[in-house]
Each structure stands twice: as structure tokens, then as C-alpha cells.
Fold each of these.
Amino acid sequence: MTALDPIKIRTEFPTLDQTVNGKPLVYLDNAATSQKPEAVLGALEQYYRRDNANVHRGIHELSRRATIAYEDARAKVAQWINAPEADELVWTRGTTEAINLIATAWGLDNVGEGDEILISTMEHHSNIIPWQLLTRRTGATLRYIEIDEQGRLILDDLPSVLSARTKVVALGHVSNALGTVNPIKDIAAAAHEVGALVVIDGAQGAVHKKVDVQDLGVDCYAFSGHKMCGPTGIGALWARKDLLESMSPYQGGGEMIHFVNRDESTWAKVPHKFEAGTPNIAGAIGFGAAVDFLAGVGMESIAAHERDLLAYAIEQVGSIEGVRIYGPESLDEHSAVVSFTLGDAHPHDISTILDAEGIAVRAGHHCAQLVMKHFGIAATARASFYLYNSKDEVDRLVEGLYRVRGVFG
Amino acid sequence: MEAPQLSSLYQQLILEHYRNPRNKSELEEKTVEIHMANPVCGDEIRLQLRIEDDHIVEAKFVGQGCSISQAAVSMMTTLIQGRAFDEADDLAKRFTEMMHGDEEAARDKALGDLRALQGVSKFPVRIKCALLGFDALQEALKSEIGEKTQ
């Protein structure tokens, strides 16, 4: 494993090379979306400039090229999470659509009154609302695993909330609001003992570390391209093939059919059964290029670099008087996110003052209102790191936070 | 583009209202209550008014949010006590004009402490914070006037 040089890597990200409010940009909002490297921008441009055609339709050369690039990207992204087969990867608009797909297409046929769906209070709204919608339509009950004072799942409660009635266990791999890394493998094993389907929201999971869905032992894994250097509007649902084959379609239209008759039609094979309409071809190709880019840098190097940065950031930010950091104390359970409050300065005010220094952080509830309620706060400021961030940028953040203290101190 | 000065945003008067908000309590004799939130950022208030004969006799609020949203509501409540509906509506319009960069509105003494918020107009993403209270007020006026004409 070679040590990662963020200064060198930064040169591949054109957005990072700019000043904001007269200061060099420090981009620390990576948990919201990552910046895009030249390799991804180039792949998008090549598709639109040279290969643009619809997929699986034409006999002509451009359609052939587009189809090959599109399906190659599927194979790369499937391999990225060690899916047994490329055909188990369904392209979606992102993590949100992937979770809605499984909650709807699998849920409506397999969940009924008296059944239970188990999620946690740590979840992003995208892993709460699809299940709420499903319980409303089926009469099933939504149950929660609570979190402790460090923002970790209270797994001691698992035996009391998991039962033969549990049809789905749906959890985030990594919390976007706190950075908590959940012990998915153990939970999946416990869930399978009662026969529940295990669905993982991997929006923040496949980003920082190599994910192996077979080792995790889960049934479904949903993730997004844009969090990991890929374009927006493209994501994927990986699910076991037998599961996908047993499911009804999610949306109807072109591409997803085999034969169409007046009253009855037959469906295309998995995964195309779930890809109605012209897909986000460029997005899929860009996602494939992002995965190639990250593999080229090396995920082990990225994980080690982020761990270094996180340790430094927690130490430096945490030493500022009035700062409270939320999330697990152990770095082993904490992804590259520092979620914090600073005295009585509201996170929006923190973010505005940092923005004046060219520093981008997120302020708000991070689409995790149940997490905020748990800690009795309305919002946090969140600095989230990625491969191109440096310790110098952590120092800039700390300087910026002293300016916040100057205004609110 | 020249960066707007932070000092124009975080005036002492704003921080003072943020830390010591005026009229921040439940109004037992309220006749109308409007809940207004900015779901994007979580700013949230419940504006409570006691209305008599087309006048705002008393105005109080409860809520939470950033310094700009909470200071603006605090300032607004001090200004609208005892005002007739049309006067309160004029203030809301005047304040909105100031938020959209109208220099003349910003010089209007009728806006009182609210003029300290002029700097917010240079920070487009924060304008909605400053307008939260007046949005609630206008909604309250609309519901009162609507009731009368029914």
C-alpha cells in the first residue's frame, strides 16, 4: 500500500482549484457529494461527444459502443462491491431510488399486516420514508433500534426487537450525520436467523472502504455514484439474483419487457426487468470510470489517509473551547465525518462564517431528524473528508472556527 | 466578485436579540398561531398573536434556529405590537424590499431594529432565515382577513 498524496490527487479535480470569497476553496462537504476527477469528466464527455446512442436498441455502431460501455460499467461497479454476478446490479437514480425499489417491488408482495420492519433512529430519511410508505400500504409495523450517547446502535436490544414477525431489517452501513460505522455482518447474521431480508443503505459505505456484499452476508445493498467521485443521478441496487428474479417489476415501460401483448406481457431478464425507459447511460459510464479511478488510487490507501485526517480533525476541532463532537469515540467505528456544535453559535451561522473563509461544510439536520432528536439538538455542523483533503485544510477549518468564536464568543 | 463582509451580517444588535430574544414565550390569550419552518435548515417558529378589531394587540413567539431567523422574529414582535393589520402588512412588505436589496427601504426608520438585518441581503442563502417571521405574520394576517370575509 502506498501512502496517498492529497496534493497530487487534488490536481485531478478541477473544481478544487478555485478561490471562494477570495480564499482557496476547502471542500469539506463530501458526505453530501464528492467532487469529480478528470477521468470521470472525460468518460462523460467521450460518451456524449463520440458514442451517444440508446442502449440495447440499435444494430448500428454507436448503439453497439454505448451498450458495451454501459454494460462494462455495470460489471465494474458490481465487482466493486464483490457481487457474484454483474446481472445482479440494477442501475437506479441513486441510493434513494434503490431503497424505494426494494421496499416497493419486494415489500408489497412479501410484507403484510402484523409483519414488522426494523430500522434504526440513525437512518437517513431515505431509509425511513420508503419503509413508512410500505407500512402504510400493508398494515405492517415499523420498529426501531435505538442509538446510544455516542450515536451507536444499541445491539443489546436486538433480541427484543427481532422476531419471526420481522420481514425486513434495513440499516445504514455508515451514518451520514454522525459517521458511525455499523457492524453489518453481525446484524445480518442475526436477522437471517429469524428469516428477515437484510437491506443496507450503502450511500456512505461503498465510498471510503472496499465493500464485499458476500462477506457482509446481506441481501441488498443500495449506493450512489456521486458520493464516490461519480456523476449525480446514477446509483445501484445490488440484490441476490434469486430475489431479483422473484420480484415484480418496479416501473413499466420500454427496455424492461420481453413480449408485449394486449392484456399480458412478459418481462425482460434481470437486471433489465428493473430498468424501464432509457437509463442514465452517461451516468452509468461515469460511475464505472469513478470506480476505476478509485481502484487506481487504492481503497486501502484512501481508508488509511481518511483515518489519519479524521484522527487529526477530531483532535484539533475537539480542542476548541465550546466544541462538542457527536459520534463514536473509537476511530474503528467512525467514518471520515466530524459532526459538531460550537457553543451557542447555530450551525447555519457557523457555515456562513466558514463560507466567508472559503470553507464548505454542511449545516443542518443532514436528513437525519431522528438523530438530532436523540441528541436534543436542531442541527449540527458537519465536516466530511475524502481522498483529496489534507491536514492543512483541517488547520484552515480550525482557524475558521476560531473566527466563529470571535463573532459569537 | 468581492466577498461580502461578515461584519455587515453579524451586527451586535442581531447577536443581542439572538441571545436575549424579546417576546419569546407562549401567549396564553392567543387568537391565532402560525407554525412556520424552513425544512431545509430546521429553523422553526410558532408565532402567536392576540388579535382584536383588526389590530395585533400582542405578539409572542417560540422557536429555534440560527441567529438571523431568531433575531429577526424577536425584532419583528417588538415592532408589530398594537399595529393595525395594514400597518403590519406594510412593515412586512418594507422588510421584504430591504431583503431584496432596496436601499431606500433600508433607510426607513419605521423598520426600527430590523434595519440591522440589511446586511443579510448580501448573503442570498440566508435571506429566507430573515424572512421566516414575516412569512408567519403574513400567513396569520391572511387567515384573519380570510375569516372575516367568509
Amino acid sequence: MTTRDTDDRIILAHGGGGELTNRLLRERIVPKLANPLLDPLNDSAVLERPGARVCMTTDAYVVQPIEFPGGDIGRLAVCGTVNDLAVMGARPLALSLALILEEGLPMSGLDRIMDSIAAAAAEANVPVATGDTKTVERREGDGVMIATAGIGEMREGARMDASRIEPGDVVLINGCIADHGLAVMSAREHLAFETELRTDAAPLNGLIAVVLDTGADVKFMRDPTRGGVAGVLTDLTEATGLTVEVDEAAIPISRTALHTAEMLGLDPLSVANEGKVVMAVSANDAERVLAACRGQKYGKDAAVIGRFTDVAPPLAELITRAGGRRIVTRPYGEELPRIC
Amino acid sequence: MDRAAIRRMVDELGAILSTRDGIRIMEVCGTHTVSLFRSGIKSMLPSSLKLISGPGCPVCVTSQGYLDAACELAARPDVTICTYGDMVRVPGRHGSLADRRGGGAEVIVVYSARDALKYAEDHPDRNTAFLAIGFETTTPATAATILAAKAKGLENFFILPAHKLVIPAMKALVSGGDVPLDGFLCPGHVSVVIGADAYRPIAEKFGKPCVVAGFEPRQMLEGILGIARQLAEGRSQVDNVYGVAVTREGNPLARDLMDKVFIAADAVWRAMGTIPMSGLDLRPEYKCFDAFDHFGVEQGPDVSPDGCLCGEVIQGKSEPADCALFGVACSPLSPVGPCMVSSEGACAAWYKYHRKA
């Protein structure tokens, strides 16, 4: 082994717990995430939160490729975890970060992902309080897998509970759908196509805090990641026993995303997002929530896209752009581009 | 989108239908089937206008015997199967390619024949077999890939050929006479290659109006309305509302490629039996790329799963909901037949967009 090897690329020994591991952490990982919770590098971080209702989540990230237009697996990991806390009505307090690195990963690639994690954590104003790094033998993957956990403190009065949703309540979304899934697809080796689409991955805790600060009665929020908006709408009909009627023409989507999905034979409603939140809100509060969203960086294109009714049987029903109707269902798995 | 213009077309259709017993139009292409549902156009049509899904989903028309041959090939330790994703979950007589993959077989999803060729180049120690299915849309790409493989002198790249031709299947349907049909909404992508004039025998000899349409909601509706107008006026001709992409003569370059590598031959379609000159075999000079020949596998009998009506569905003899398995024993999670697997399959589209319970 030459010094050059250990400086250029991840090797198995970087996960061995010895001097190489120590150097990797101190030189390339910890400095970028520096904060009082992490800096002691103890086995656990200690958070003082007497009397708080604590919210906890965990997530794993195995996206391929690890870098794609507008983002990478690092930004995804931070945003995804922060958003899972925020949509529950929690203020994110701290994240954990476990990196699983394949041998052969260029150090420059690791550096870019660490920069991206640091930037997203700073943007979300959430410290990475603890972490772990392991190495695995070279596989077919791109080199990095990430597992996170997040802890948040429930906001006073936040009651995200789909069973509170009633006929007449409305469904809102904070902006354009389908950008993330299509951007990632555009970068896949076997499908590469040129597009101006970029991931929408963004931490939404700021936007959600502003919405909840209005005092509006937000009854339920979920981020439409895998499974897309279609998945969340299906969840909502199942959880409430109500029909949700959605106006396709009201759903924000860029022309590029619309046509790209069409070209690939994909339903934009089933495509993943990483910076979107679907909210169920009392109709009286809709305007307030819309205004709050539109004042935020990640909510400029917010729109009311549908409403709940007691029409039986309970379905997610779409009024299409053409003016027809169809149902919306959770996709089976990842939808594949069509053959011809 | 101009909802008012769409409404006017639907109203005109209603007016035409009010003067007739009903109209039965076959949409030949699986992408039309899906788009008609997804756009909601299907829900807006007069109830006496029946849209019938035809044999236009590549995976759905592929015979069970072909799939079994692919599974047999996948079981060989020296072979990697490269396939379009929709084929992986179609159940064969002894399981699916997904089952084989679970058992250790190399089955790789690709988006084009060219990707399969690249896989073969990157893995010279393995044999790569590409499942070459689809109509005139995918065939030119397969042909170009065969030519590239020949030029590169690759000896570890093969295809399992099952490409099919649309026009002979349409002729078989109308001359069979057991599926009452009044006209055809002709596939957009296939027509880019074969050209609108290819449908003239269907319109002129068999008296079935044909309109070539793309996949925009408005255009599909224009196509349907065009067929209804022809019927109302007693005409039968080929119209083309997809002129932006489809010419009368099609794409001669793509057809030359097909013609150079493939030659028309009889082919087995799922549940439809052998249709004369409806498939494509490799020409003798490219036979060395034929995985059937090279590995000595044979296309088994076309035996449909018990109770499965996919074969009837692709001929317009049944609707998905007519099948006792639909939504009960057969769903996208546990499909019995190919029409529930493929994203272009009629059963999958009905299940996804139309199921009410």
C-alpha cells in the first residue's frame, strides 16, 4: 500500500478502527460537521430536553448514481431525515450519520458528499450529533451508502393525525412535482438523457415551521418521496376512509418534467420528490397556509390541489387536465420507462 | 389544455353515436391503452363507444413458450439475460425470470438493445442474450445492434428473437371475424417507422377506418372522432392526426435496417396461435447471433395459465374485468398473466386507473 492509495481512495482499512479510520474522521468528516454535540467524539451525543415530546426517525439511502443533477446522496440523506421529522410537526434537533463506503471510492467524491451534507445540515440548522464510518469490499455500487437517524422535539399543539381529516378539508402541495425522480433517472448509466431538470431535494423544516406558526389547523403532512404524490394520496384515502378528489390542472409541474415523464411513459404523480410536502388543511385555513408557503424559498409554487369528500367508495380520484376522471393508486414498485 | 375544445369533440362524438347502435374501436397500441386511461379521455366517451385494447403490448403478445425458453436460457450458468424490465415478472410455466434471478441467474434490466451489447463487451467471459421483443418500434434498434455486434466481431452477444409486425396481426383480427370491430386507432410510435400508408389494406380492403394518432389526450380524441366521422359518412380510409411525427411512407432508414438483418417469418402470438409472416427471423448471415440456435433452446408450447384471459384480452375478445382472476387472484403484486405485469398491459391499466373497489 502506498501513501498515495490511502490519500486518493477509500480502502478497506479506512474502516478498520485504527489509525487510518481516525485520520479519515479527523481530516475529512468531523471538521465539516463541527458542532458542540459532535465535537467531543463520544460514543453517543447527549441532548438535554427535559419534558419534551420527542420524535425519532431513521432512514437509509442507496440511490444510484450517488451524484445527480442538483444534488447527491448526502443532501438527500440530510433533507430526507429532516423532512420526516418536520412533517410530523417536530423541530429537528439532531441527526446521526452512518457512512458505508466501498473500497475504491475516490476521496474527492467523499469530500464532495461531505461538503454537501454539511451544507444541507447548515441550511436546515440541524447538527449532525453522532456518526459512524465503515468500509465494505468493492461491489457493483457507486461507493456510498448512508444511514441516518433524526431526533426532533414535537411542537406545542401540532397534531398530525389523518383521522382528524373531514370532508371539505383541502390538500396542498408546496411546489412542482416529479423533478427529483426524473433528474436521478436522467443520470442513470443506461438511460442518460440531457435535461435541465434538477432534484428538488430541500430541507422543509423552515417552511413547515412558518406554516404552523400561522396557527392554521394542519391535520396531516407527508413528504411524497418514493411512490410520489400518488402514494400519499392513496395513504390519505386509506387512513381517512374519505375520497380525495384532485385537480390535475392545479398540480404544479414544470413543462420539462411533464414532457420528460410523458416521453418515458411515467405518471408524474408516481415519481419521487425530495423537497415537497403534501398537507391536509381545514378549508378555512387554506389561504393562510398558501400565503405562508409562497413567502418561502421552497414554497413559491404552492397550490391547493384537491379536497376531501365523503363520496363512496373512498378513492383518490383525479380530474384530468382533459377534464376526464381516473383513479390514482400507489405504484407497484419503482415504475420503469416504457419499452416503446 | 383546452378543456372546452375537448368537450366539443366529446359532444360531437355523442351526436354521431346518437344516430348509431354503437361503435367499437380497437386501440392497437398498449401506450394508447394506458394514455386513454391516464388522461381521463376514456371516462369522457359516450357509453355506446367501446374502446377495445388490441395486440399492441410487446410483453403481452409474447408467447408463453418464448418466456419459458428465456427462463431455460437464464438457468445456464454461462449466460446473462438482458431484458426490458417488463419481461422480468411475467410468470412462465415454471416461474418467472425474477424467480430465476432470485435463484442466482444473471438477469439484467436494460433500456435498449445497445445497453445489452455494451454489457456483452464489458463482460467478455460471459454470454449475453438479449430478449429481442417488440414491434417495429424496437426492431430497428435491435437490427442496428446486431450490425454493430457483427462489425465488432463479438462472439458472446446473442438475441432471442421474437420481434413482431403489427399489420399482419391486425389483418388476422379483422379476417378472423370473431371480434366485431368498426375501426382502428393506429399506434403512433410504430407508425413513425412503417408510415400511415401501411394501414391502407386494412382500411381499403377490409373496410375498417384507420386513424394514426399520437398520445396527447386531444390527439387521441381527434383520432377516435376521426374514425366515428368516417363511419358516419360511410368512408373507410387512413387518416393521420400525428403528422408532426408520422409521414405516409414512414422512416425508410429504420425499415432498411430491419430488412437488412431480419426476414419475415411465421410467428406465435400469445393465445392467437401462429400468424403467417407476422414475425421476424434473423437472416442467414446473422443467424450466428440467434440464441435459440446457439444454445439449442426451443420455444415451448404456448400454454396460458389456468383461468387467465390475457390471450382473449389482447384480441379484444374480453375485457380485463371479464376475467375471474382480475383483481382477485391476479393483481400487479401477484400477476398471473402478462397483461397485469406490463406497464402497457390492458389489465394493469384497468387495475391502476379504473378499479372502483
